[in-house]
Amino acid sequence: MNRKRQILIFIIIIPLLYISFLRLEGYYLTAERVFYACEKGLHYGPSEKILAQYELSKGSKLIVGKWEGNLSAIPVEPAFGILWKLKSGGVSGLIPSDKEISTYFVGDGRIIGLTSNKDVKEVSCRIEYGDINYPSIKEISMLVDQDGYFTGIWGEQKGEDYYEYISYLEGKNGKGQVIYRDGKSSDGTYYKDGVLNDTEGKRE
Amino acid sequence: MRVPDWEKYLKEVLSHVKFKYDHNPIYVELNNHMEDRYEDFISNGMDKEQGQKEVITCMGDAGILGEELNKVHSPLVGWIWLSLRNLLIILILINLFPVFFLITSAFISVFETYEDKEDSPLVYTIDVGYKEKVYDTTYIIDKILYYEDNTMEIRYATWTNPFSDSIKWSLSISPEIYVGETQLPRRGKGWKSGSYYGRGQEFREDVPLDATKIIIPLIYNNKEISIDLAEGRMMANES
To answer: Which residue on chain B is closest to A11 by alpha carbon?
Structure first.
């Protein structure tokens, strides 16, 4: 077989083998393709919009999307310099936003969240962390974007303490008025998804 | 057979062939050809020295032969061919492991059998044979078995196209069992194998004989598989 004919056969076979390798080994040409492929594999999505991408260690990044009012958070990492794959070490995947304001820790000291309330422009959280019996407290405020998405860095866990919990959360409108509460406020009042627990379900 | 004059001649021919990767095969081929001609001459009674010289004469001008060979062994085509061939070899090598894994896992999954529950007699079975496709995965609910110790077993399999563009997970099912409209507490265990093709079993404990239906929600989707437990029962004592 002459070389020109062999070249033609190579040109047909090489892309097939390349695609086969990518598909079987889970490599993709872009980070976004990994994100959508992971969603498809977990049987949800594709996200209507990628809300944000955050740099993690060693060139990897966390991609956050929004699908049917829920968040989708998937970490990806580069491979062979030109490809991308799912980052090892676990995937958050779909984060159901079952409250008016939902929040989620995604590691690296980052908190992400989504609100379905269009009036909420700022979200403040009180985070308990460290020793579960004697937790340290940190407060953080985050601005809400036009998609209802918010994020912030609250700090990093130290040592062997992995306890982290949002004990209280407030949603404020554009005038700074609190229009949503969830959790135990500083005066000891309990709220559940915006409802004062001792009001027999009556909304504030 | 190495003859100084031949070596000089071949060196002259090869100096015209720009695609150096082919020098060795051209050298071997021409040298073999010259040896054959030489053997012919010797067998026809020519002496060795004259035979060696006659071979070079028969081969013709080294420059003309070299130019002809350079056209056949074009450096542009040669380098493209060589690069693609090497790329092909690399791709074949890096495909070996995933293809081997795919074949072995498929082989294992196909011949994998369900674990038989032997600690309690069977009460009834239902051959479901229901298929539902979710994205690129097909869920196949094979069979439901109910045992005297009030355990309900659901046998199922999943199939995902290995070449689809999704990241493959080994997703199990989470059946909800109802008596009327009341959902029973989820107690039990299960297992699931394989990410391309895999079988799974779910065992639910404390399920009453009069359980009416199983709902299998397909995660994050509005889809669900509903199985009526009152239909298609094959009682063990009747078989």
So the answer is: B84
Chain A residues whose C-beta sits inside 8 Å of any chain B C-beta: 3-4, 6-7, 10-11, 13-14, 17-21, 23-26, 33-34, 37-38, 40-44, 86, 94
A184 within a domain of the structure (yes/no):
yes
User: Are A114 and A191 within one domain?
Assistant: yes
Are A103 and A89 in a shared domain?
no
Q: Decide if B34 contacts B59 (C-beta within 8 A).
A: yes
Query: Are B167 and A37 an interchain contact pair (Cβ–Cβ within 8 Å)?
Result: yes
The CA distance from B166 to B115, in Å, is: 30
Contact B18, B69 (CB under 8 A): no
Domain containing A35 equals 27-96
* Interchain pair A38, B167: CB under 8 A: yes
pTM listed for this prediction: 0.81
CB A128 within 8 A of CB A145: no
Q: What is the pLDDT along chain B (239 residues), one digit of tens a residue?
A: 777 889 999 999 999 999 999 999 999 999 999 999 999 999 988 888 888 889 999 999 999 999 999 988 888 999 999 999 999 999 999 999 999 988 888 888 778 888 888 899 999 999 999 999 989 999 999 999 999 999 999 999 999 988 899 998 888 899 999 999 999 998 999 998 887 888 999 999 999 999 999 999 886 767 888 999 998 899 987 65
- Which domains, and CATH codes, for chain B? 4-107 (no CATH), 117-238 (2.60.40.1640)
